[in-house]
Amino acid sequence: MSNKFRTLFFWTLVITACAPTVPATEAPSRTSPSTVQPPTVVMIATTQAASNSAPQPPNPDAVTTVAPSNPQECAYRWAYQDLPELSGDFLVSIQGLQPEAQATAFAFGENCVHADESTTFLPMETDFNITLNVADLANESDLGEWIVKVMQIIEAIPADQIIGPMPGRVTLIFQSGGDQKAIQIHVDQYTALRSDLSSEEIYKALQTQ
Question: I need a labelling partner for 145 at 20 to 30 A (CA). Which of 30, 161, 182, 206 fits?
Answer without folding.
Answer: 161
